[in-house]
Amino acid sequence: MKKRYIISSLVMIVVLFGLSLTAWFKPADDFSESERRKFEQFPELTTETLLSGKFTSKFEDYATDQFPFRDSWRTLKAYAKFYLFNQKDNNDVYVHDGYASKLQTKIDDASMENALNKMNYLYSTYVKGNTDKVYFSVIPDKSMTLAPEGNYPSLDYEKIGDYFKDNLDWAKYIDIYPYLDYTDYYKTDTHWRQESIVDVAETIASAMGATVEKDYESVTPDKDFYGVYYGQSSLPLPPDKITYLTSDTIENCLVYNYEKNNGTVAGDVYDMEKLDSKDPYEMFLSGACSLMRIVNPANESGRKLIIFRDSYTSSLAPLLVESYSEVILVDIRYIYSHFVGSIVTKEDFADADVLFLYSAMILNDSYSFK
Amino acid sequence: MLFSGIPFLFYFLPIVLIVYFCVPKFLKNTVLLLASLIFYGWGEPVYLFLMAASILLGYFIGMFIDKSKTKKMKRLWLTLSVISSVVILGFFKYADFFIDNFNAVTGLSLPLLKIALPIGISFYTFQILSYTIDVYRGNVPYQKNIINFATYVALFPQLIAGPIVRYVDIARELETREHSFEKFYLGMRRFIVGLSKKVLIANQMGAVCDLFRETSEKSTLFFWVYAVAFAIHVYFDFSGYSDMAIGLGKIFGFNFIENFNYPYISKSISEFWRRWHMSLGSWFRDYVYIPLGGNRVRFSRWLFNTLVVWMLTGLWHGAAWNFVMWGLLYAVLLIGEKLFVKKLIDKNVVIAHIYTMLFVTVGFVIFNAPDMATAGKDLLGMIGVGGYALSNELTLYHLSSNALIFILGIIGATPLPRLLHTKLAEGKAKNVVAIIEPVACVVLLFLCTAYLVDGSYNPFLYFRF
User: Fold this and answer.
1) Tell me, what's the pLDDT at B458?
2) For residue A294, which phi and psi values (nearest 5 degrees)?
3) Alpha-carbon distance B280 to B126, whole Å?
4) What's the gap in Å between the CA of B357 and the closest CA on chain A?
5) How far separated are the first and last CA of chain A, in Å rounded?
6) pLDDT confidence of residue A358
7) Residue A20 contacts B where some CB pair is shorter than 8 Å
């Protein structure tokens, strides 16, 4: 009996101290690839930080972030939740038919109103009186079709669409819901796949009296794409591959990013270096950017399209350039609304097509709109 | 610092264990005291001074009671102990509650003090009171060694969430206690079981409760799912904390009293309170109810005693009316049980159990409400008042997603797992159990670590106690 307790105690001691010693002496990591965030570092220890509780609170984050084999623990937890306790989501992320999605059920009325107010401001400040060719569309999340199939609750996407349809009486609503199902999105990421949204591009272009190209060359680089849900789900999901569509027109387009050299240096539509970055989806127009001009030398009509947008448009915009000499992209998450006019001028808006294109996810969490 | 956190499990605890078991016997209490002060000061550095003042007050009053020659003087010192405890608790815990209600009654607008409640104040104040009262009663000699006394009050295993350990129960162990591999292993086993109850069951049920509170898509069924989820949450959280405290105590050579004895198998409210938070129930019985005369008094006085004790029990859990109402609900139920219902429930075990759990669940809905208005809405929602659908997609999702946790919670709240373990451990397969058991403990520790590393929902329920 005594021997049993000695052996059992030793097992406990080895496990507890083995993990503890590893935690104490493991060098700190700066960044988590899977979670796409910076890790907390050992906090500054001063009398002030100690008495204010800052040290202890940051130390708790540090100890948790820097715990040895963190990703493996997170995967163990995900397995426990999904397979041991038969729970349907982990960290509000669920997987159905190989597609990961976020569990979202609550429409944030205040956020919707905030988004509406911002769009009304943009319209009345820049668009009104300059052009009456104004359009609006909502991009649903993949959960719109994935959730019902897997018996998960989801946002009421019809309600979100209707809210803006009813309140934006100055814009023509373009319904793209029927053209999207969950297979049109990446399995591990929130975004849609460019090769699956040509019909969406055609619908939007057609509503604006424009056209899209008929023949694109489809290219799939041999690079793995681990999307945002890969890290959040903590499950070893197989990676996606990014496919992009290109053509002579797209390849000849010149992209001026106002966050780089004040928009004076032309870049490419597809930024191949980004395929090796932390977020390979940024290969489309180099990722997040407050203001961008895509100049299409193949179109000399002078016709312009201005899109108030979020990241979904990065992969859609290249498909819309065909009928335009210039496509201007504005993301008010990264530029103050009142500042837009200093770069996108009255002349730009004059007789231009203006499209407000936002994902339902952003509309339901629009507090980053500036 | 929380037991269910990486800093405690893999930094604080191992360091304390190393130092504690390396130092000679005469320094062990000092190590425990220092560790307890760091543990408490981790989250509440400023309130260390308050705890130190309470300890000094308790220590000296205990000494003065013992040294006093006359009964009158002893009583005077005890009165001072009671008053100082009530003043400290009243100021730090109840001041804003009284000001708020005073303003409501008088129409004045006296400013609130907005004092952050020192964690564990109710636990250590009650421990100090039990000490001074027991010294006054002659049940125990006063503690001469201030390190030992401070260790008793501040002992980190039970400092912030109980059980309320009485000085008389561990007085001997404070002077001398035994350590062994048996105690170490059994203590670790108990700690890990408690940690698992907290992390794997209670936290999951707590998340359901929070989802219910946040959503506007409620249904009648969701009100019930919430009520049952909270009943499981609060039991597994609280008894899990007690298990962890008792387990840690055992590692360090202490035998703390049990705090829960499968309360959800009770067949009456009075039985429930003999099984739920036993250290608090017995504290109020021995130091309030019986001194007031208990039940050996005339009927009206007994009613008064019962109401006072249960109102105070409710108020002990937090400075808000819903806690008072929760306490009074039990007073009414216990009075009703004694006068009318007992004969009826004695006849039918099933009805008795349903009756008990119904009121316990309803009671916890009141307990967990942020205010009385919400408590009322929740109770009405449970009976379908408020224009809610009978069920909805969200309710069914959370019910089905957590079905196994609900089942584990319900089974785990009965003695079945313990009976099964005892049967196996004492049966033919006892050698196999001896091997599997520590492995199971390690697996549970790994699972809890995984949940904690992922930064899962991990609330601390006792911040209002």
Assistant:
1) 61
2) -105, 115
3) 9
4) 25
5) 69
6) 95
7) yes
The token pair at B282 is: 């017995």
CB contact under 8 A, A19 and B447: no
Picking from B8, B9, B437, B454 by the largest number of A CB atoms within 10 A of its own CB, the best residue to mutate is B454
Listed residue (B186, B241, B192) closest to A16, CA to CA? B192
Residues 377-416 of B with CB under 8 A from A: 393-394, 397, 400-405, 408
List C-alpha distances in Å: B447 to B129, B199, B301.
39, 9, 52
Give residue A329's identity as a one-letter amino acid code: L
What is the pTM (predicted TM-score) of this model?
0.88
Q: Is the Cβ of A85 closer than 8 Å to some Cβ of chain B?
A: yes
Q: What is the model's pLDDT at position B462?
A: 62
Taking every pair of Cα atoms in chain A, the longest distance, rounded to a whole number of angstroms, is 91
Residues A223, A242 contacting (CB under 8 angstroms): yes
Inter-chain residue contact B184 with A16, CB threshold 8 Å: no
Tens digits of per-residue pLDDT, A114-147? 999 999 999 999 888 888 899 999 999 999 999 9
Has the ipTM of the complex gone over 0.95? no
- Is B421 among the residues known to form the active site? no
Q: Among A12, A21, A34, A57, pick the best mutation site for testing chain B contact (most B Cβ within 10 A).
A: A12
C-beta of residue B326 within 8 angstroms of C-beta of residue B366 = yes
Q: Are the C-beta atoms of residues B465 and B123 closer than 8 Å to each other? A: yes
Q: At what angle do helices A2-25 and B430-453 cross, to 10 degrees?
A: 20
* CB-CB under 8 Å, A67 with B10: yes
Amino acid at site A20: S
Q: Check B179, B233, B277, B317 and give the catalytic one.
A: B317
Q: What is the pLDDT of residues B69-98, one digit of tens each?
A: 899 999 999 999 999 999 999 998 899 999
CB pairs under 8 A between A and B: 126
d(CA B68, CA B59): 14
Closest C-alpha among A66, A138, A126, A63 to residue B9: A63
CB-based contact (8 Å) between A214 and chain B? Answer: no
Note the pLDDT tens digit of each residue in B16-42: 999 999 999 999 999 999 999 999 988
- Structural domain including A283 reads 108-363
* Residues listed for chain A: 370
Residue B244: name the closest of B29, B24, B448 by CA. Answer: B448
A87:B402 CB<8 A: yes
Residues 135-194 of B with CB under 8 A from A: 180-182, 184-186, 188-189
The number of domains in chain A is 1
User: Is the Cβ–Cβ distance between B223 and A46 less than 8 Å?
Assistant: no
Six token digits for residue A192: 């849609």
A170: exposed, middle or buried (Cβ count in 10 Å: 0-12, 13-18, 19+) = middle
Kindly state whether residue A32 falls inside one of the protein's structural domains: no
Q: Which amino acid, residue A75? A: T
Cα B13 from Cα A24, distance rounded (Å): 13
User: For chain B, what are the domain ranges?
Assistant: 6-177, 183-464
* CB proximity under 8 Å: B 187-226 to A: 188-189, 200, 204, 214-217
In contact, A236 and A243? CB cutoff 8 Å? no
A25 near B CB under 8 A: no
Q: Tokens 């397979």 label which residue? A: A83
Each residue of A29-69: pLDDT tens digit? 988 877 888 889 999 999 888 888 889 989 999 999 999 99
In a domain, A84, yes or no: no
Amino acid at A7: I
**Using the beta-carbon criterion (under 8 Å), do A53 and B14 form an inter-chain contact?**
no
Whether A51 maps to a domain, the answer reads no
Question: Which uninterrupted H or E stretch holds B308?
Answer: helix B299-316
The whole-angstrom distance between B408's CA and the closest CA on chain A is: 9
From CA A310, how far away is CA A356, in angstroms rounded?
Answer: 10
Mean pLDDT of chain B, nearest integer: 92
